[in-house]
What does this fold into?
Amino acid sequence: MLVRRLHVSAYSSSKGNPMLFQSLTSVATDAYAEDDWHIMASAFGIASFLLQRGVNTDRNAGRLAGEIVRLFNTGQRDVNKLASLAADRERLVEISD
It folds into this structure.
């Protein structure tokens, strides 16, 4: 578990790629502030890492991105918490598929 946390911490220090993240959602660019896009993009990158998925090659990337936007809209702003919650949700969806 310690090794996993170290990897996530190292990954979360990057700003993420807001342009890639935005392209996976149907949300207008001006719907959120630039800092908000960075938070969501970083959470998406971390969640993809936790799920061991490529950020731009996974077929369910759009679904994961949508879940991050949904969680963000509930008021969650902590990048690691957003990532963890979204990854947990995605695992549940994968089980039911």
